[in-house]
Amino acid sequence: MKLRQMTSAGMMDCKKALIEAEGDFQKAVDIIREKGKLVAAKRADRETSEGSVLVRTAEGKAVLVCLGCETDFVSATPDFKALAAEIADAAIASFPADIEGLKAAVCSNGHTVEEEISAQTGKTGEKHVLAYYATLEAPYIAQYIHFNGKLGAIVAFNKPVDEALGKGIAMQVTSMNPVSISKEDCPKEVIDNEMAVAIQKTKDEQVQKAVEAALKKAGINPAHVDSEDHIESNTAKGWITPEQAAQAREIIKTVGEQKAANLPEQMVMNIANGRVAKFLKENTLLEQEYQLSDNKESVKAALAAADKEACVVAFKRFSLSD
Question: pLDDT tier at 320 (50, 70, 90 boundaries)?
């Protein structure tokens, strides 16, 4: 029982460790911890889609931490929750720069975070892992953890803001998952990728419109020939004749190629630019519609209405389900 209290390991594991250690408690503790490392190694390739997301704040600093595991059954146990809280406390106390630094941080019992995670893995037989760790420093930091404990966010401001507004913006980040604070600081690779997608989608739509118009002019329902599988199945059903099937294939090929080769570049770019602008409005924090607003104002407008000098300077978000 003493060893169980020291390690939180199962009773049979404690008994076996004491027998192997010939009654030496410290050696038994080492045996149990080594067992945890072995179990962790065996389960290293397992997915950890469950867990607990926690926030800790202190004196202008904040940490967002997630301890992951394999099942929601384990994530709901008191021991798992206690370990997650212990790790979050160690994180805000030592405020390491990265996740490797957090693994080396010391818990209240004198063991490192990494050692405690290995021990918990050995106890449950289920993989445990530091799934996420991030920090922020700012004059004011708001936080929000979703009620299920599976996702959350911390948001840094240049100055103190109304507590309800700060929490609301943290909720906005949690629920709407913006790609950046504003369109100005949106990563170039994100914009480039959205532009490439928008250009291709615009071209495909223009070609499709031309093909459908040609099919209708020929008396063929475009919905009956929108794929080779549909052409074959609808021919077999008698909805189109073999001659219409052949004509449809020819129209799709020739009209599609002709339209693709003669698309007005400026028109394509105008439509694509509009699509990218829409993406940025919907996916950058300040431009998003503020979810707690009654008049559909943006987050930027809601913040300015409360304090014209206040602004968001950074945010961190993590979700186990993303």
Answer: very high
